[in-house]
Amino acid sequence: MRTSLAVGAVAAALLAPTAARADPGTTTAGIPAVTDDRGRALTLRGWNVEDKANRGDQALGAITERHFRDMRAKGFNFARLLVFWDDLEPERGRYSQAYLRKIERVLDWAEKYDVHVLIDAHQDVFGPAFGHRGVPAWATRTDGLPFTPHPDDWFAEYFEPAVQRAFTHLYEDEDLRRAQVAMWRVLADRFEDHPAVLGYDLINEPMGELREGEDLPAAARRIEREQLTPMYNRLADAVRSVDRDTWIFVEPTPIVGEGVPTGLGRIEDRKVVYAPHFYNTAMEAGADYDPAAGWIETYEQAVTRYPEEYKVPVVVGEWGPLNNSLPNMNRFYREAMASLGRYGSGWAGYVWCYGGGYCAVDGAGGFRTNKELTAEPYAEAVAGTVTSSAYDSGAGVYRLAYESSRRGTRVTELSLPPGAWQVTARGKAVVLRESAGRARVLAAPGARVTVTVTEESRREVSP
User: Phi-psi category of 93—alpha, beta or left, where left has phi over 0 and alpha has psi -120 to 50?
Assistant: First the structure.
């Protein structure tokens, strides 16, 4: 009781009233951070949540409350929720209220477990006209060009003439532009006030049509510059017509995964997040990680150019190899986690499901091989400016240094994965534990604070 009273007195002193809003934060790389409604710098770590198999009356049926309960229990605070235009608007101009209610039910589960949600307008190989999900068949125009399925390499279907032409029509046909704008206005209008919704991902992995004699990197940069940039500005305007505050996430083409800088231009909105994916072609085909190839380093150099130039945050929307148990995958996860932490406001791994393949966990909910390395201590929300933040997985120690905000809230929140962790703070600050997986740090205005989180099992025992 005495300890509780002492901590309470210190906390009361630290929380003396100030102005309403915190100072905006940055990542350790100097790239702006995603912030919450109190101005705190957020770190988002979590997983994609999806149901690609079911549609219509069964849509989203594979997603359950357990997904969010289990993610939060393992320390994750972020979910990228896949939704499909073909389910939302199965017939032109007829929006499914039942589908909107199903989305809302999922968001309610996320709110219950304090998980931020990114609503992702997902497409794979354009949509159902080509045997996948995404853009409705009624909005698919191919000009009669051929399409040949590639059952053993679905990504190759993006290069089929009919698929590429369908993207061109989506970007260029005025009536399809209006339809896409209207679809996003419906989504944003419905969910703008939902507490779980952090952002909108305007389209998943957009592709386009290659011109004769054009190599893939040149085509990607042209598509991003000439077609994606104006599309994102149109859709941002549509969202802002009904929702003024939610973050807008924009993706380059998937070619950025090979270390090719994007050709995207400026998106004229004050709350834009750059949201690339982090996949390697060889690893997606089943190869082991090759540390000597320098892929992670090349990717990091390329992917940071856009946020540095346009001063926007970056959150990686998908990452994670199919075969996570190959000999070098332990090293891959450690090096990938370190890289992602240097420049980004967070990431969503692919995918939170219970089984094999890409699934993060097995049927019993235990991490599959090496995926436990994604569960680290981190600062979910920092009330101030971060100067350093890193986890030493070998030592089991996370360190955060920041200068506390001089205005508004000075409550910094930490997420702790399962296990026993000791949390200490140096500077004019006090640590409060809320639960086994959460802690808060309360700091004086403008204080220079260092937080250390140590795994109890690895602490040195004093003689």
Answer: left
Whether 33 and 24 have beta carbons less than 8 Å apart is answered as yes
Structure tokens at 15: 């929380």
Maximum Cα–Cα distance across the chain: 79
Closest CA to 42 of 273, 229, 323: 273
- Quick one: tokens of 189? 């209008």
Q: What is the DSSP letter of 434?
A: E
Please compute, for residue 390, the number of CA atoms within 13 A of its CA located in the half-sphere on the CB side: 14
Whether residue 452 contacts residue 433, with contact meaning beta carbons closer than 8 Å, is answered with no
* 25 alpha-carbon distance from chain centroid: 18
**Residue 270 is which amino acid?**
R
| Length of the chain, in residues | 463
Instruction: Tell how strand 421-426 and strand 448-455 pair up.
Output: antiparallel
In the three-class reduction of DSSP (H, G, I as helix; E, B as strand; rest coil), residue 147 is classed as coil
d(CA 263, CA 229): 9
DSSP string, 364-386: TSPBPTTGGGG---EEEEESEEE
Angle of helix 174-191 relative to helix 229-240, nearest 10 degrees?
40
pLDDT (tens, 9 = 90+) of the chain, 463 residues, equals 223 333 343 344 344 433 334 445 555 568 999 999 999 999 999 999 999 999 999 999 999 999 999 999 999 999 999 999 999 999 999 999 999 999 999 999 999 999 999 999 999 999 999 999 999 999 999 999 999 999 999 999 999 999 999 999 999 999 999 999 999 999 999 999 999 999 999 999 999 999 999 999 999 999 999 999 999 999 999 999 999 999 999 999 999 998 999 999 999 999 999 999 999 999 999 999 999 999 999 999 999 999 999 999 999 999 999 999 999 999 999 999 999 999 999 999 999 999 999 999 999 999 999 999 999 999 999 999 999 999 999 999 999 999 999 999 999 999 999 999 999 999 999 999 878 899 999 999 999 999 999 999 876 543 3
**DSSP for 78-139, written as a single string:** EEEEEE-HHHH-SBTTB--HHHHHHHHHHHHHHHHTT-EEEEEE--SSSSGGGTSSSS-GGG
- Name the pTM for this structure: 0.94
Q: How many CB atoms lie within 10 A of CB 131?
A: 14
Number of H helices, E strands in the chain: 12, 19
